[in-house]
């Protein structure tokens, strides 16, 4: 019964919504934008909305910008642990999936490895297709120096335990992890913004720790002023040979100045250009999810959320130092389905990252920024034509070199016969974990089992937890149980 339920879920639920491959010869981006141009943002054509079944007679190709955000899963965990049900608009299935370890093989060079696999579902004509992309990791010793500008919210709402106190603790820890060649600016904002440190080298670490200690709560939340001053300092201290990044730490509850992401990004575009990336770090029980996520997606960056000292330590002492650099700018994926094999397909999630087909090789169109050692996973619900054989789909990723903006592509394909026989019996463990995470997200977003309830999801999760030996899978099972209690 569980297999039938998952099949129904994946076939219907989104109503709200082999490693390797050979890289083609790099090509020069046709319309390389200058450092101060604002680039067009992703736009989806009406025929490519990812939350509807796409008949291959009309839509053989699915295109989206890569996204490594994980904030949606982390915030959902926070709300469920408090006995609350997340708001549907805060649930993004791709961020649930991308929160989990994937174990894809890394490429030998600076591009991507493409991995495509899948499994049959409840009936022989239904399947799930997984497209996995992986970049090569780097060591702290090998990375280039970094210019990091921390823009810290010190408004009144940050007085709640687990907000500014968590941020200050994490910043102190991070400063002790950075390398001597790194430089740090610290900007605090409430009603107005103030620079507490301006591109200070790590050789003056004591001064930076003192600046963190001066972060105190006061006033309203003029996030716009903080972003403006932060990007101004990032631009003034810009080093071409360094990685230049703005890191916004806030609960996202802006209530002064411009409070819409588009207006804020418009104000900083001259300083930001395309050479300064953004990381948004969300904190707090009440959290401005949409603002922080859209700032990240449209500001050449990514979004995370932390609610515990353990999560903050992982983000600031493990993930951030190791992933300061970029492997790829404006990365996009395109999956071409074989219309003689596939009757219809649906991308699960990525609603905010959908692109028109023609945007894939238009290098003036914004994609996603991906760091070293990152994996990106996309799942498709696929309905096969009866008795179909042969190539099912080809997945291609296109990206630009972080410095030269030279574009390159690599691809991989999968045959129908390569699909695992039955998802819950024969598929690789990591594929099953991905499907479980996506199914749970879709269930919470739409509040409908589509043939499968939380008990069935929990049952599959418990089986997987024992097999995967992964604490995060055990955590997912706990969240499913908490969702059942909160429903």
Q: Can you give me a brief rundown of this structure?
A:
This protein has 487 residues and is an alpha+beta fold.
How would you characterize the largest beta sheet? 6 strands, antiparallel
Overall, the morphology is globular
Oligomer: single chain
Structural class determined from secondary elements: alpha+beta
Mean pLDDT over all positions? 86
| Radius of gyration (Å) | 22 Å
Strand residues, percent:
15-25%
- The share of residues in helices is 25-40%
Low-confidence stretches: 1-50
Number of helices: 13
The separation of the N and C termini measures 22 Å
Tally the beta strands. 17
Order of helices and strands: HEEEHHEEEHEEHHEHEHEHEEEEEEHHHH
Explain what this protein looks like in three dimensions.
Helices cover 31% and strands 25% of the residues. The chain has helices spanning 2-12, 71-81, 93-97, 164-175, 205-213, 223-236, 261-272, 289-298, 309-322, 423-426, 429-446, 454-468, 471-486, and strands at 27-28, 54-55, 61-65, 112-120, 126-135, 146-153, 183-189, 193-201, 243-250, 277-282, 301-305, 328-337, 342-347, 368-370, 375-384, 391-400, 406-415. Strand 9 (243-250), helix 7 (261-272) and strand 10 form a beta-alpha-beta unit. Helix 4 (164-175) runs antiparallel to helix 5 (205-213).
Blueprint of the fold:
Blueprint: H1 2-12, E1 27-28, E2 54-55, E3 61-65, H2 71-81, H3 93-97, E4 112-120, E5 126-135, E6 146-153, H4 164-175, E7 183-189, E8 193-201, H5 205-213, H6 223-236, E9 243-250, H7 261-272, E10 277-282, H8 289-298, E11 301-305, H9 309-322, E12 328-337, E13 342-347, E14 368-370, E15 375-384, E16 391-400, E17 406-415, H10 423-426, H11 429-446, H12 454-468, H13 471-486
Parallel strand pairs: 6-7, 6-9, 9-10, 10-11
Antiparallel strand pairs: 1-17, 2-13, 3-12, 4-5, 5-15, 7-8, 12-14, 12-16, 13-15, 16-17
Helix pairs in contact: 4-5, 4-9, 6-7, 7-8, 11-12, 11-13, 12-13
């Amino acid at each position: 019964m569980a297999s039938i339920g998952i099949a129904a879920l994946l076939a219907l639920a989104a109503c709200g919504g082999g490693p390797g491959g050979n890289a083609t010869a790099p090509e020069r981006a046709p319309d390389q934008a200058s450092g101060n141009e604002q680039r067009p943002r992703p736009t989806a054509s009406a025929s490519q909305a990812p939350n509807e079944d796409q008949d291959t007679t009309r839509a053989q190709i699915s295109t989206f910008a890569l996204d490594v955000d994980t904030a949606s899963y982390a915030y959902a965990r926070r709300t469920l642990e408090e006995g609350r049900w997340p708001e549907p608009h805060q649930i993004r299935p791709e961020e649930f999936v991308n929160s989990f370890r994937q174990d894809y093989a890394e490429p030998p060079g600076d591009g991507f490895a493409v991995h495509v696999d899948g499994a049959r579902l409840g009936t022989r004509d239904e399947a799930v297709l997984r497209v996995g992309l992986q970049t090569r990791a780097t060591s702290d010793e090998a990375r280039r120096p970094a210019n990091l500008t921390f823009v810290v919210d010190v408004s009144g709402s940050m007085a709640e335990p687990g907000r500014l106190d968590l941020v200050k603790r994490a910043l102190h820890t991070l400063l002790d992890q950075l390398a001597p060649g790194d430089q740090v600016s610290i900007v605090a904002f409430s009603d107005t913004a103030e620079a507490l440190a301006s591109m200070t080298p790590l050789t003056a670490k004591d001064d930076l720790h003192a600046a963190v200690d001066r972060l105190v709560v006061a006033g309203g939340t003029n996030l716009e002023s903080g972003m403006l001053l932060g990007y101004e300092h990032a631009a003034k201290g810009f080093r071409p040979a360094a990685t230049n990044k703005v890191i916004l730490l806030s609960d996202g509850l802006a209530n002064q100045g411009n409070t819409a992401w588009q207006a804020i990004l418009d104000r900083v575009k001259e300083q930001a250009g395309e050479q300064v990336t953004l990381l948004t770090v969300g904190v707090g029980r009440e959290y401005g999810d949409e603002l922080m996520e859209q700032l990240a997606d449209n500001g050449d960056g990514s979004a995370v959320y932390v609610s515990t000292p353990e999560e903050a330590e992982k983000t600031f002492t493990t993930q951030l130092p190791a992933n300061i650099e970029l492997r790829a700018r404006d990365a996009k994926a395109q999956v071409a389905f074989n219309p003689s094999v596939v009757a219809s397909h649906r991308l699960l999630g990525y609603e905010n990252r959908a692109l028109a087909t023609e945007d894939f090789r238009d290098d003036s169109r914004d994609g996603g920024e991906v760091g070293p050692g990152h994996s990106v996973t996309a799942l498709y619900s696929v309905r096969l034509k009866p008795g179909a054989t042969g190539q099912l789909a080809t997945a291609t990723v296109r990206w630009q070199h972080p410095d030269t903006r030279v574009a390159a592509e690599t691809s991989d394909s999968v045959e129908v016969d390569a699909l695992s026989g039955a998802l819950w019996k024969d598929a690789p463990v990591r594929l099953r974990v991905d499907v479980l995470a996506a199914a749970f997200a879709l269930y919470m977003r739409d509040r409908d089992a589509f043939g499968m309830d939380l008990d069935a999801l929990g049952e599959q999760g418990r089986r997987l937890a024992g097999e995967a030996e992964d604490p995060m899978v055990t955590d997912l099972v706990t969240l499913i149980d908490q969702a059942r209690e909160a429903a």
